[in-house]
Amino acid sequence: MTPSVSVVVVNHRSAPEAAACVASLRDAFAREGLAGEVVLVDCGSGPEETRTLAALAADAEVFLPDNRGYSGGANAGLAKARAARLVVSNADVVFLPGALSALLTALEAANVGAAAPLCLWDAGGRLRLPADSATGFFGELGVRHFAPFARETLRLWERGGAAHHLPGAVLAARRDVFDRVGCFDERFLFEYEETEWEDRVRGAGLGLRFEPRARVQHLFARSASRNPDTEARREVSRRLYRDRRWGRIGRLLLERAAARPRRAPAFRRVEEPAVAARRDAWIAVSTNPTLIPFAGAPLDADFRLPEDVLASIRPGPVYLRTFRASDGRPLDTCVWEKR
User: Fold this and answer.
1) Beta strands 295-298 and 161-162, pairing class
2) Strands 268-269 and 274-275, how do they pair?
3) Closest CA to 293 of 189, 140, 188
4) Could you report the per-residue pLDDT of 101-124, keeping only the tens digit for each?
5) Which end of the chain is more exposed for a tag (fewer CB within 10 A), N or C?
6) Residues in CB range of 105: below 8 A, 6 or more apart
7) Is the pTM of this model over 0.85?
């Protein structure tokens, strides 16, 4: 029987997380009455890891001998998938109840080319990961204004709808969309592959939908830290995307701007990554002093960075900004140093 949805799970050195992801998908298929299949892809993690993954008994397995990156792993899995509705997922994702059904419902609109869920960073489900990126030219240049970006972020988190770009941890699309715009470009070795693909989706006249009723936990930044080639791969992808989107001159301008010494903002320093509750306000959290993009949570109660999130953040400054929910206006910004 042809499945109603195929979920491609792409793994690299993340077997424990992949096991949790596959288990959450099995639960989702049963709970939501979906005839789904799991296509499990490994990108050159080695024989010990593939033995662990084989024990998960996915519906289909693609164990690649080398690391073709997320784009190459996703494409290999899509080639094995049988359904007309497709979901591509990082291995470090846990699907929460109702997430798959909500994503598939979003795809029913003919003008929607792809949909993505709301990603929660912590196990408690309070801290939300960015709903959109800063991949526009001025966003990459670091000159986007915080307040309008914050307003748009809250709109997506709370109501969903059309987005300029979608986070790539989980992407859902119909097979006819991939047939129309093609698969992921495997020259993008780490990151930007979903951004470039989404550019093609939008160029084909289709929309990108952020669906907050679909919720997943994304163990952000944990698996990437296990790959020593992560930063080099990210740099290759960044240069390629900038060349393609902005041209060589645009790329050089962005690179020169990034290399230019900048004075660190004189934000108030704090001893703990914590902020008191504040009515009608949110907290933005980022390792970028512009705080674009940011993870965030409502300040309906006192906030402290959860321990599971702290474990995934590299040493260095972490910026905490409170802002008004009504207009995104910053109220206070402080910085905490992780050592």
Assistant:
1) unpaired
2) unpaired
3) 140
4) 999 999 999 999 999 999 999 999
5) C
6) none
7) yes
